[in-house]
Amino acid sequence: MTQPTQAWGRMPTPPAKYERPLTDRHTNLPRPSDAQNTLLAHGWGRSYGDVALNPGHTLLHTRHLDRFMAFDPATGVLRAEAGVSLDAILRLVIPQGWFLPVTPGTRFVTLGGAVANDVHGKNHHVMGSFGDHVRALELLRSDGSRQQCSATQHPDWFRATVGGLGLTGLITWVEIGLRRIAQPDVQAINRRFASIDDYWALDAHWMPRCEYAVAWVDCLRGGRGIYTAGLHAGAQAQWRHPPAPQRQWPMTPPLSLVNRASVWGFNWLYYHRPLPPQTLMPWPAFFYPLDGIGQWNRMYGPRGFIQYQCVLPPATMRDASRELLRLIGSRGQGSFLAVFKTFGNRTAPGMLSFPRPGSTLALDFPFQGEATLRLCHELDAVVREAQGALYPAKDARMPGSMFRAGYPDWEAFSTYVDPAFSSGFWRRVQT
Amino acid sequence: MKHKFLLLGATSAIAHATARLWVQRGAALVLVGRDAVKLQQALQDLQVRAGPQAHLLHAIQADLEDVSRHAALIDEAWQRLGGLDGVLIAHGTLPDQTACDADVSLALAHLHTNGVSVVSLCAHIAQRMKTAQAGTLAVISSVAGDRGRQSNYLYGAAKGLVSLYLQGLRNRLYPHGVHVLTIKPGFVDTPMTAGIGPKGALWATPERVAADIVRAMDRNTDVLYTPGFWRFIMMVVRHIPERVFKRLRL
């Protein structure tokens, strides 16, 4: 009945040797019993691959570091321990007229994890990434030293730790600046598009007008899809909506339920569903469509799944994305969730931050061993040719050369890695 | 509606999760904890959650091992809020049975913390509530107190002492309108149980246990097994004949 800690993609990986909870931010890090054994913080385990796994070494669970430290409802400045979840933050601040300035597609992640992966949301072109809103954080190193880092205090450590995949030490607390809202629900528009070319036109029209913008793509039918954009609703907007029920994915089926036929059928239904061109959407439905189904990752069966998320720079994004969709369609490896999003034209706060000017595409593939790895390898070639990069938070398989090509600052970054910290991901991309 | 509570052992995971639920209703709380730094962290968290009602929260640093201080401590807590509707006793340790088998003084120390100090607090609180002819006294015991097993009978004995004492106290205070709740959690994923791994399907979160405690205190339940399935597991465990039980390795 018992299972060692897994990543969200549920791919079988060797377990950590030790798993220790952290309970008090004032105590020092546990000393590894042997010098070879390294540490890594693990929050709510929503990273897909091995950035939050440390096979054969030690995992430090941060879920008990979940205390708020200070919140000023007048300025929207919040300080909390690193294990506090975005869900807990939203429940505290929404009633007081505040919202997260940047949120990923799930609210069940910790603050520390959001910083360490410098996560982004549907509003990157307006608000940047999570690290852009971190006012300060405390970094605890294995030598017992603690330093408060921000854009002005130890700015080099700050740039290494934001997006630093938990490798520079333990983030004990984080202070973020929130954003004001009149109400949390979202005034959304939906548009179907017949091809990827139409997507670019829609994107050019709506991105300047809306804070949030994202597209779902049917990769089995040449890239038609649905474009969704939105704005936080004004104080006067009114809408009666029933509260969304919380469902649980009941069990892990013996085989993945995600296959060519089911994706083909699902995508057809999803594309043709009744689609209000303009609507007021409850905030959980708009920001966190999958959070309503607990443990949805079980539907991929015992072998788990891989998420492939890349970013393509503006000069190459149109051709490269068309090529990626063509490849996926021809291999018949469909994905329920294929998401397109255009990043804003801004420099990210971290040395290893993923967001950068261009377009990002995210796809989920059920893991089918060699065939899946081969397809990812073919996609790599296209991304590399386009001078793009892959997102470590989603990755479980990229070769070291791919990582180094996408993150030219990796060498500067590695001088900031705490000697007692490491991860499955970090050891993998060293080779 | 009960809204003034005292939490003894307030920095423990279950007590803290319970305090958060009470803060959501706007309750006034007195937190008692041994470690000043952890107590401050817990108080800060609850103050942020309470927002404008943060002034309703108080903290007192005290070592509950020291039974000579209990009378003064209970007096102080009562005065802080001008009376109390409910008390949750949540402090405790999880002794290592093998170490206790080898070291009698260690065994007695754990027995004192988990058993004797709890009884002392209950006795002082019972006087107060009996005088007031009202109140709810809730104490975290354990399913381990339902039957002695070789793997942790010292902890079980202390909790058994507490459960049995509370039965008598419940009986004594019933005519005085005072309600006594015995809380029997199973395996809960807290810092206290960090050394036990890995956590399987029988394990519950502190938040789940806290929600059960709040509900049971509202409804005047007598004995709460949390999560509920432990009631049936322990029914089976209690009914195994001793002749059979002594041969098992549980």
Descriptive account of the structure:
The complex is a heterodimer of chains A (431) and B (250). With 431 residues, chain A is α+β, with helices and mostly antiparallel strands. Helices cover 24% and strands 24% of the residues of chain A. In chain A, the strands form five sheets. An eight-stranded antiparallel β-sheet of chain A has the order 15-11-13-12-18-19-17-20. In chain A, helix 8 runs antiparallel to helix 9. Chain A is globular, with a radius of gyration of 21 Å. The two termini of chain A are 35 Å apart. Helix content of chain B is 49%, strand content 14%. Chain B has nine helices and seven strands; from the N terminus they run βαβαβαβααβαβαβαα. In chain B, strands 3-2-1-4-5-6-7 form a seven-stranded parallel β-sheet, with helices on both faces. Chain A binds chain B through residues 1-4, 19-21, 23-26, 64, 67-71, 73, 92, 96, and chain B through 13, 37-38, 41-42, 44-45, 48-49, 51, 190-191, 194, 197-202.
Provide the helix percentage of chain B. Answer: 40-55%
Strand order of the largest sheet of chain B: 3-2-1-4-5-6-7
Strand and helix order of chain B = EHEHEHEHHEHEHEHH
Side by side, the strands of the main sheet of chain A go 15-11-13-12-18-19-17-20
Content of β-strand of chain A: 15-25%
Shape of chain B: globular
Task: Please state the average pLDDT score of chain B.
Answer: 94
Low-confidence stretches of chain B: none
Overall average pLDDT of chain A: 92
Provide a brief overview of the structure.
The complex is a heterodimer of chains A (431) and B (250). With 431 residues, chain A is of the alpha+beta class.
